[in-house]
Structures are given as structure tokens and as C-alpha cells.
Design the sequence.
């Protein structure tokens, strides 16, 4: 569909399928999850950045993508856990792409889902990505095994937006359109968009959620851990000053004779890890 500057409709819609984010990663950057008989990978990745023209010579703005990401249909898919993408763009061998195919996700080609979109800085859209486990040989399992072997997948925006071709060959996206999905590809157009090696997944969770989990866990462990009760027997414990460090799996307890540090029993450490997994921490 071509942009027509003489059209009565200012925004003639264009199909855009564009690689936007390479995901360079090592296994330590990825959370491996095994639960309910499923085996998949969860990680945080930059999906798109907005610092001028990308390698496809197309210019997006953060305001346009924010509006598209906040659309009711995208928010509904995120809420339902169904914001999925395919392995590669749906381009047939003939090279002819239909609008109908672009707008519809093929369930047999899905490889991953995005469970959360967030903006760690105003110029970058990030997401929490999970590979899909739909059985041996399926796209999501192939993607998981690719990642574990060191292949660096990228994510590519598939959308329907108004855009203008400039005289120098560059393209400007003119306004919000339809965000369909982020497909898995290999060669990205946004060079700066790599996996969030400096953003622990726990930092993606709302601070209030994280603090609520920590407060509840500290109270629970202090009431049930025989090990901590034995060590603090005879001491005055300031319950409001207890805290748990998930990195070292150590409980910090303030008492009348000073602060002590204790690793709770294994079963309690496993329980907090399980709670974090459910929150994507």
C-alpha cells in the first residue's frame, strides 16, 4: 500500500515489518524456568530505541510507539498473556504480502510471548520475553535451544502505520497505527538495542510488588524458621528492621546486641525463589 500525498486521507496506511532489536546474551542473562511440566527461558530485552533513523533509514518516535503499545487490544493481549510473536516475518515465497496475513498471527509459527512492556528510559521500549514450550521441534523450543547455544535472536516490529517516504530515501512514521507483534528475526535495524545485561529482571517488577513480597516473606520466615528462632533466642528482635537479600539469600535481623545475618533453611529459600518466579523477578 503506497503513501499518496494527494489523497483526501492524510494517512494512507503502510505495512511495516522491521527488525528492531538484537538480543545479544549469555546464559547468565537468562532465567531458565521449569514448572508445570514446561521448560522455557525468560529474559528482559530492548525491543526498540528512538534515537533518530535506524539502519532501515526509518524514523520512529517514542510518542508514536507509546500510543500503539497502550492501545486497548495490545493491553488486552498482555493482560491475557497472549501477546505472542512468530518465528520470522510472514513473507511468502512469492514475496507478496497480504494485509490479512500481516494482521493475523499463525499459531503454528509462534515462538515466544511478551508478558510485559516497560520504559526504563524515555527513548527505549523494553519487554519481558518468554520462549514458548509447545513440544519438541516447535518454534519456541528451537528458539530456546538457539539461545542456550549462544545464538543471538532479534525482535522485529510488525505493524500497520502511516509513513512518508522522503526525497533522500529515508522514511518518517507519521503517527500511531496498529502494533501487531514483535517477531523473532536475526538481523536487526536498531544497533543499540541489546538484552538488558544491566537491568536485573527483578527491577522490572513494580517496586511496590517487590517490597510487598519481601515484607511478607520476612515476617513469614521470622515466625517459622527454627534456625533463626534458635539463634535469636533470648534476644530482643526488632521485627520492623528485618530484611531479606535475595542475592545472598540471607536474612538480616536487628537485635538488642547488634545485627545478625542468617541463611534460613533451604525450604524457605526455595519458597522465596518460587514467589519471585511468579512475579518474573
Sequence:
Amino acid at each position: 500500500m503506497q503513501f499518496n500525498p494527494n489523497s483526501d486521507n492524510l494517512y494512507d496506511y503502510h505495512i511495516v515489518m522491521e527488525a528492531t532489536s538484537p538480543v545479544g546474551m549469555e546464559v547468565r542473562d537468562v532465567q531458565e524456568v521449569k514448572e508445570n511440566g514446561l521448560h522455557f527461558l525468560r529474559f528482559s530485552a530492548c525491543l526498540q530505541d528512538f534515537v533518530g533513523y535506524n539502519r532501515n533509514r526509518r524514523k520512529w518516535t517514542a510518542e508514536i510507539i507509546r500510543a500503539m503499545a497502550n492501545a486497548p487490544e495490545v493491553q488486552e493481549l498482555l493482560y491475557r498473556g497472549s501477546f505472542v510473536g512468530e518465528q520470522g516475518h510472514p513473507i511468502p515465497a512469492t514475496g507478496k504480502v497480504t494485509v490479512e496475513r500481516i494482521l493475523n498471527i499463525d499459531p503454528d509459527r509462534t515462538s515466544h510471548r511478551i508478558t510485559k512492556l516497560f520504559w526504563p528510559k524515555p527513548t527505549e521500549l523494553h519487554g519481558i520475553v518468554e520462549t514458548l514450550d509447545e513440544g519438541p521441534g516447535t518454534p519456541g523450543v528451537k528458539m530456546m535451544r538457539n539461545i542456550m547455544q549462544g545464538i543471538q535472536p532479534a525482535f522485529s516490529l510488525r505493524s500497520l502505520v502511516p509513513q512518508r517516504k522522503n526525497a533522500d530515501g529515508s522514511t518518517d512514521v507519521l503517527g500511531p497505527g496498529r502494533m501487531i507483534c514483535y517477531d523473532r528475526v536475526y538481523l536487526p535495524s536498531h544497533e543499540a538495542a541489546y538484552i538488558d545485561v544491566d537491568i536485573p529482571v527483578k527491577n522490572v517488577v513494580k517496586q511496590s510488588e517487590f517490597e510487598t513480597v519481601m515484607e511478607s516473606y520476612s515476617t513469614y520466615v521470622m515466625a517459622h524458621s527454627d534456625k533463626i528462632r534458635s539463634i535469636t533466642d533470648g534476644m530482643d528482635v526488632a521485627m520492623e528492621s528485618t530484611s531479606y537479600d535475595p542475592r545472598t539469600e540471607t536474612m538480616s535481623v536487628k537485635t538488642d546486641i547488634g545485627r545478625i545475618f542468617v541463611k534460613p533453611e533451604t525450604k524457605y529459600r526455595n519458597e522465596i525463589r518460587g514467589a519471585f518466579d511468579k512475579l518474573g523477578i
About this structure: Confidence is low (pLDDT under 50) at residues 1-12, 23-28, 190-205. The longest helix spans residues 207-224. Residues 13-199 form one domain.
